[in-house]
Amino acid sequence: MGTSINFKRPDGKEASGYLANAARGNAPGVVVIQEWWGLQDQIKGMCDRFARAGFDALAPDLYKGKVVPYHDTDAAGKEMNSLDFMDATTQTVRGAAQYLGKNGAKVGLTGFCLGGAVTIIGATKIPELTAGVVFYGIPPEQAAKPADVRIPLQGHFATKDDWCTPALVDGFEKAMRAAGKSLELYRYDAEHGFGNEQRLSVHDRQCAELAWDRATDFFKKHLG
């Protein structure tokens, strides 16, 4: 459904990604951020799904062509740990937001796992955003303080998550509330990565569909 494109970062460098356009013109935009596996077909499928829901969706390729097989957690960890999160967010992700918003459309940001952490960083650093939806990822507080979040956020987290743990989620929620920030937070009796239908060991269809409905309703409310 979509296509690979190149777009400019604010620093003038070129980045690439996968773009799926809604059927209607002047659609709002959603930037979709990958898990630590890279720009997998599953993430491209999420862009296609957002397009069918009425959004122009762009997934920037933060690993620049590198895609890690689902079974290779060591390689995924290595790629994620070598990623410059600040450059990725303030340049590549912001460039994607600027691309989608170039005709005045409102733009949201969503991401999964690694992409969830990038979404929260983006919520503090990218002025072009109107709303964000976070899936099971939270950055260290030194990367993005809840008090610096500029946009309404919705969060989807798993109770059986040993990476983005329930305790981490509780701390994030408490800090957001203390800072008076807008946060809708949902917890699911599921495992980390429950939204990825290509990973049958963790996918929970019922939780994934509920989270999807909540996310698209949230974006329709804030982006139009």
Automatic annotation (TrEMBL):
Superkingdom of origin organism: Bacteria
Molecular-function annotations in GO: hydrolase activity
Keyword Kinase: no
Pfam assignment, any one: DLH
SUPFAM superfamilies xref list: alpha/beta-Hydrolases (SSF53474)
Keywords tagged on the record: Hydrolase
Entry protein name: Dienelactone hydrolase family protein
